[in-house]
Automatic annotation (TrEMBL):
Subcellular location(s) of the protein: Cell membrane; Membrane
Name recorded for this polypeptide: Na+/H+ antiporter subunit D
A Pfam family per the record: Proton_antipo_M
Sample GO molecular function, one term: NADH dehydrogenase (ubiquinone) activity
Main location: membrane
Keywords: Cell membrane, Membrane, Transmembrane, Transmembrane helix
Protein's membrane topology: Multi-pass membrane protein
Membership in a protein family: Belongs to the CPA3 antiporters (TC 2.A.63) subunit D family.
Organism domain of life: Bacteria
Membrane-spanning residues: 12-31, 43-63, 89-110, 122-142, 148-166, 178-201, 221-244, 251-272, 284-305, 312-330, 336-360, 381-399, 419-439, 508-529
GO CC list: plasma membrane
Record has Transport as a keyword: no
Amino acid sequence: MTMGVEDLAGILHYLIPLPVVLPLFTAGVKLALGIRRPRLQQWLSVISLALVLVIGLVLMLGVHEFGPLAVQVGGWEAPIGITLVADRLSALLVTVSAAITLAVLVYSIGQGMVGKAEVAPLSVYQPTYLILVAGVSNAFLAGDLFNLYVGFEILLTASYVLLTLGGTQSRMRAGATYVVVSLVSSVLFLIAIALVFGATGTVNMAHLGERLPELSTDLRATLQIVLLFAFGIKAAVFPLAAWLPDSYPTAPAPVTAVFAGLLTKVGVYAIIRTQTLLFPGEQLNGLLMCVALATMIMGILGAVAQTDIKRLLSFTLISHIGYMIFGVALGSDQGMAGAVFYIAHHITVQTTLFLVTGLIERRGGSTSLDHLGGLGRIAPVLAVLFFIPAMSLGGIPPLSGFLGKIGLIQAGVAAGTPLAYTLVGTSVLTSLLTLYVIARVWNYAFWRRPSEGMVAEPGTVLEDVEADDTSTAALGPGEAVGPSSRLRDTTTAATTVVTSVVLPKSMVGATVALVAFSVALTVFAGPLIEYSYDAAVELQARTLYIEAVLGGDR
């Protein structure tokens, strides 16, 4: 008996919850095992995220063929029950996030972030990491505002733990800032949900897509502004991004990488849903364009002023969020397609660069440009691993960063408004300044000849721990105790790293895989751009999404 189209689509429905359920189930198993069977636990984590990646790819193919798919958790029909929805955008982001988190997990295993009970117990790091992945997937697949809120809280709660691993003063201070800012955004989001429910009687996003247009213009604008403000904090748009450069660089390299690559994009994703499904039209597009403009400029100017690679990349992260908001604010299919493509590109490239920065620290002993030099000669593989994603971030053709920026610039020119033209010019300027700061990192860290004693010798134990915090409990995962180094850098996070000529294979292998993935985004840019355009059309039309959730013809 052959399987029909409806049967295949029905099977795909059962796959939608798995990107949330699998990491949570694996985290529960690992919590039950505690510190026993560390090798088995590592394989369980890797297999779990590999399965999520495969499921994401299947969902991408399925929604491209059948359109949006929805599942009603517990059998409660929408709009009453919890709805999970996979469309082109959410399936793409689940897939990319699964690839990124899998690579970062392998990298962290190589760094020794797990399996060392005296500093970062296996029973703490990996379950927390898997819970973070589940929260991200839940946010991308959520079909109602409250479930989206739950997804945010799951990933934020896990991120609090990951950010403060090691318990040093710098990490606790950064964690406190991060917690306060996150709580403010969460409270605002919760208030927005209450206001929306009070005005419409529902929090189901498909149902809201039908009911919100019935409200008065002023009330809709108020609800939209409150939601955008809450999501803007999470996305780190200007002027709501001051917390990020002081929070992310303090964490260990793998944690910083996954934070920089994914967490802000969850906020951008929520803004896209708000602007397309809930509040279609051009009511606040001008405001969003101004936000995009300020985010690009302030972020890249902050990057220009930095001498530490982690902080520099944190500021470039902020500036490039502006590109995504630019595409959303244009309100056109072409602009939205550019934003979708750029999100996939930036998740990959930004994560890769932070992982490479971890390798730089392990080989050169610092992430400060004042203490680096000659890495191109003594570590040529590391130079290549940095060069490719860095050039992509800078927008050098024919890499994916160039293609994403060209798509957004073309959409801005097609819009033809003075504000759009201003953003086009700002986009070009931001890209040039990004290339400048990347070139400065290359020249200082890789190209210039180091002076005597500038770069740590292999085997040097580097410490950066506050004077009043010298206990082993203050060290982060995989960090060792040793004598204070002359290369102490008080501008960066409190970390302890042993430099090495031969870097751990899994760390290098995970980074190579992400570099290859970023190159694949260029090689297969044609199909991905076409997919992004189809996703943009689907987002703007809304009808298929609403019908998938509520049923019937609308």
